[in-house]
Amino acid sequence: MQPLAVTMGEPAGIGAEITLAAWTRLRADGPRFVLLDDADRVAALAARIGSAAPVRKVASMAEGAAAFASALPVLHRPLPAPVTMGRPDAANAGAVIAAIEEAVALTRAGEAASVVTNPIQKAVLTRAGFPHPGHTEFLAALAGPEVKPVMMLACPGLRTVPVTVHLPLRVAIDRLTTEAIVVTARIVNAALRDDFGIALPRLAIAGLNPHAGENGTLGEEDAAIAAPAVAALRAEGIAATGPHPTDTLFTPHARATYDAALCLTHDHAMIPVKTLDMDGGVNVTLGLPFVRTSPDHGTALDIAGTGRAAPGSLIAAMRMAAEMAANRQMRARSAA
Q1: What is the per-residue pLDDT for 213?
Q2: Which pLDDT does position 245 carry in this prediction?
Q3: What is the pTM of this model?
Q4: Which of 36, 95, 158, 265 is deepest in the core (most CB within 10 A)?
Q5: How many CA atoms lie within 13 A of 188 on its CB side?
């Protein structure tokens, strides 16, 4: 399989140092990956934090794959401004964006297996004119106007999907519709089948109100919006259940009954995964014509450049990206 294309993320954040640590852990058994970054600054950072990982400039993904066993391969993309760790500079925003665009292009061209994105500093990109709320929306724009991206948070034993994402809670509830739940569930169902190799995915639809509305006594949204979505999905042959009370949906017993939980608000989906496995959680974008994963954390500017950042979530993202790409390729071959 082709190597993963890993983006630089915010240069003043922890992306490069967790990538150095990930190479140290994965060099023997992979998955192989190539970093799109300024190789000189990555090498200087390795020396600063005491990393023993050698850094090698490469000219292509294929050259990077061949070099992976002996050095961290970097597609050298010089930054226009010097980097001060912990202090983002909008002068480098263009390079951050270009790295994402190139990783997507390499993946769609078949030179990379998938895209793994290091964390970005959204406010810095916005100041530089970046029109998208974050990675997910930008990747969808690169994929095409017909694409509806869906965010999934995943760790061993749990996958959650928010139906509404970065919205104030009052706005999220106002915008929640039966159709939004159904469309999201269809995308999740297809991704679990194609990318995760689950033949008959089971979806649990979480309730919105306490006790999933308690038959309307604690809110009408569950009966009026969520329950019809479950009925519609079941009529399509999708194994959906709910709406389930959210306060009991994430117990060990309950988690064994479904493959993904669709949650109606952002925090209902984020809290259980981050509580169970903050260091190993993965952010996955479903619904794209290419595989994309990311660590489930931010740029950690307060510790950037100290060598203290834990690479566990990035490593989990890399392993999941490789597995998803392999499953997608296998399904494509079987369908041909």
Answers
A1: 77
A2: 97
A3: 0.93
A4: 36
A5: 31
Token pair 């950072």 is found at 45
> What pLDDT was estimated at residue 144?
86
Strand partners, 57: 74
CB 212 within 8 A of CB 244: yes
CB burial string 234-253: b at 16+ within 10 A, e below: eeeebebebbbbbeebbeee
What's residue 216's pLDDT? 85
The interaxial angle of helices 135-143 and 93-108, nearest 10 deg, is 50
pLDDT for the residue numbered 218: 87
Q: Are 41 and 16 in contact (CB under 8 A)?
A: yes
For the record, the structure tokens of 89 come out as 């500079």
**d(Cα 214, Cα 268) in Å, to the nearest integer?**
18
CATH topology of domain 150-287: Isopropylmalate Dehydrogenase (3.40.718)
What are the 10-residue block averages of pLDDT along the chain, 336 residues in total? 96 97 95 98 97 97 97 98 96 96 97 97 88 86 89 95 91 95 98 95 96 86 96 98 97 97 95 91 95 95 95 96 93 74
User: Cα–Cα distance between 207 and 225 in angstroms, integer?
Assistant: 10
What's CA 170's distance to the chain center, in Å?
26
Q: Is 177 helix (H, G, I), strand (E, B) or coil?
A: coil
What pLDDT score does 336 carry? 65
The amino acid occupying position 203 is L
What are the boundaries of each domain within the chain? 1-145, 150-287
Query: 1-145 and 150-287: same fold?
Result: yes
Sheet holding 150-155, edge to edge: 55-58, 72-76, 33-37, 4-7, 115-116, 292-295, 282-286, 150-155, 158-162, 260-263, 202-206, 239-244
CB within 8 Å of 123: residues ≥ 6 apart: none
CATH of span 1-145 = 3.40.718.10
- Indicate the pairing of strand 55-58 with strand 4-7: unpaired
Which letter, b or e, does each residue of 49-75 get, where b requires 16 or more Cβ atoms within 10 Å of its Cβ? bebebebbbbeebeebbebbeebbbbb
Q: What is the dihedral of CA 163, 114, 33, 98, to 10 degrees?
A: -80
